[in-house]
Amino acid sequence: MKIIFAFVLLVTSSLSILAQQKTPPPPGPVRPLNLPKFTEKKLSNGLTVVLAPLPNVPKLSAILTFRSATNGTDRAAHPGIAQIASGLVNEGTDTRTSKQIKEELRSIGGSLGLGSDPDQTTMTATALSEFSSRMFDLMSDVTQHASFPESELKLAQENTIQQIRAGRANPNFLVNERFQKAVFGDHPYGFVVPDEKSISALTREDLKTFVTKYYIPNAAHLIVVGDIDVDKTYAEIEKAFGGWKSGTVPPDENPPLPVRDKRQIYFVNRPGSIQSAIYIGNISIPRSHADYFAIRTADTIYGSSFYSRLTRNIRESKGYTYSPFSSSNTQAKTGSFVAGAFVRNEVTGPTLLEIFYELDRMRVLPVTDEELNAAKEFSVGNFSVELASQLGLAGRINTIYTYNLSKTFIDDFRPKIEALTTADIQKAAAKYFDTYHAAIVIVGDWEKVKDQVTPFGDVTMYDAEGNVVK
Amino acid sequence: MHRPVSKLLVTVIAMMLGISSLQAKPLNVPVVYYKLPNGLKVVISEDHIAPVVTVGVYYNVGFRVEPKGRTGFAHLFEHMMFQGSANVKKFEHAKYVEANGGSTNGHKDFDYTNYYETLPSNRLEMALWLEADRMRSLDISEENLKNQQNVVSEEVRVNVLNQPYQFFEWIELWKNAFTNWNNSHNGYGELNEINAATIEDVRSFFKTYYAPNNAVLTIVGDVDANEVKKMVEKQFGALAAQPAPPRVDLSEPAQTKEKRVSQTDKLANLPALATGYHIPAQSSPDFPAMALLAQILQGDDSSRWFQRLVKEKELTLDLTGGLNYFGNEFDYTGPMIMTTRTTYKPGHTADEVLKEMDAVLAELVTKGVTEKELADAKVRYRSNFYSQLESSFGKAHLLSVLALFRDDPNQINSLLTPFENVTAAQIKSAAAKYLVASNRTVIDRVPEAKTQTGQ
Q1: Residue contact A21–B129, C-beta within 8 A
Q2: Does residue A208 sit in the same domain as residue A355?
Q3: Residue A410 and residue A361 share a domain
Q4: Number of separate domains in chain A
Q5: Residues A25-51 pLDDT 10s
Q6: Is A90 left (phi over 0), alpha (psi -120 to 50) or beta?
Q7: B267 contact A CB<8A
Q8: Nearest CA to A136 among A146, A126, A145?
Q9: Which of A30, A412, A452, B98 is deepest in the core (most CB within 10 A)?
Q10: B148 and B206 share a domain?
Q11: Degrees to nearest 5, angle at CA A388 with A385 and A391
């Protein structure tokens, strides 16, 4: 009996080798998403507070956003002031030195960092849940009582200048800087880093005035996600931020965007470079635009997923590059679409050719149903992964308030993606993957690659400092 | 390892001081662990916070053991694992995962190579099928090998050769700090050696290392452990075990004299300095103190080296580093160094930077750390540890390496304990024992055109 049983087992398992599934197992039933419940409240000073419990670990994460402090704010008088201010407010307050702030963060297992971009300054903080009230106190102190000590300002000015100099050796920095300038020109979105003179000219008074004027609760929102009790957390926030004085919200500026009447090459010469860093793209749309879901999905199919057309072509078929990519960056006022790759000098021209070929193919022919369905699954599935992390969810909620999206954006995501047709994708590609007026930005060794590059358009040449050279 | 009496005492004192909240809450990660008859280690951990799952397959092979004359081979091989298998065409691994709502990647490290997918949990069995298919029947062709040699060469160019500093705080530091080739060679790979690899190399590496008995399969997420067991049996049960891979000698003679290296950099604009100190093995009683010491010296902006170099002396622009250049305290097995990298300001010298680093160490060795500093470092350590557990991938990673290197993923729930128990005296003695000049390697890397003036 035992022997027979063993024999049967053996046969079964050899059969299972022979009959090893040739096709993937089908999916099981869909599991419920169980999104955290959001609570939105407003303090009397106008601060919008959004709370979402996500107790995956005993920590909490917060994003406090100042919508009036953008990289473009006051840039005529003080270029770069938002960036320098965001780097300095956590280097000293009326009651804490820089070192005390860092030590307090260590003792709550926390972090607190700020950054500014064309639409906002964000303060991102995390801590162990047991220390949540101390985290809010620190955030509030840094927001309202930054003291900009002279020694810290001087150090930040020196170090920022040096860091930018170090960055100018880096092709990634150079290609991004030139691309933003090529696409957005004098629009605030074209501002990347300030020049050294503007950095040196900033004073304590400038910075104090800036944060008093623009770090204001009635143009701010605070998103908190994590292992929290909603009522207790809200009480802590009220206590920490209740005394923060509201201010006057400045008018929104949105100057006209530059118009490029032809395809144009912007070449940053980096002698000795053994690769060409290539960005190709143009202006697209703001996040709130109706075409957002279509361009996002076109981008997935074109170059932002691993199994994208661009990756299959210039990496998996031709071996030109390691990391081809595309990216749809939609922001508050406008956005950009960019495709790119870092390739060895010898294949610079062939890479440009294939990037354009794949862009034009998206414009001229519809994608297949299989591609579109895969892109939909990809977007919806990865969205649920993103929402399972504290900072992922907080960041997603933040976009709703910064870009003024529908409050139901997260719930609408799946149906909006699923409603897309192949015609929607082609229409979006035809409109926004505009190869005819594209900016081609290349950082590389001009002498080595010029013959491959010049057939693609007129060239404006820059050095690493950003000066036009003949 | 358990010391119930002293632990109780600590708790009582803490309660009396009103700082009971400083004590870590016990972790309770559910762990199911077993081995298939073919030797495959299987770890399952249910987590129902979101409808996602991570599947990780960790092979017990890192770049330390790649063949001589074939630097970068473990990495090239990792790319070959996406080139198709019996039932999955070239690169379609990515297609299946993404078209099912997930993402996938692989990574080579000192002592392991991993492959993983994170995707909606109802697609779990498909991910298992994909991983089983390539473990069983990797499809290797000349054409695909040539293609991936080109891709990996571009990866080395984009991340190393065309960048300022060229990863010197890893590649150059390891070349100089270690004497055993397995530890010292360039794990990213020299271009000529990446391109010298043959199809026979790929076949033999696959046969030697990519066997169920040399791997861990980990599943973390919104799943039912009993159902998962059935799927695992179905997909992986019939794979054949292979002879155990040969053991490679990774031992490293003790360093007795400081090593100093000067290099020039064609692409960098500013000078930079890297240091590496050999650290005790993970099994050493000094190891937890060493980990907290790294935290205290360079773990964050409050740390002693950061404060001294960047803030007080204003000598350097930045300071980064830690115990394991690529990972954490648990995801390697061979000899390791604590590395530090800092970009210093023009007009200063490496000696000035080193002098300040040494002065900080001298203070530590003579005066030690305060109780508050140590307690805070532990809070920071615990908080960072929780962050690693936040995502299903992070949890899968820890469980996988604990199964791979210690055959005990259940340790995840007690992993913090030795670090929570470190005393100020242990910190002081670890600093005196390991952070000495004779135990370190220093590389000063200066922009080429500026070597003469230093300006």
Answers
A1: yes
A2: no
A3: yes
A4: 2
A5: 999 998 888 788 999 999 999 999 999
A6: alpha
A7: yes
A8: A126
A9: B98
A10: yes
A11: 110
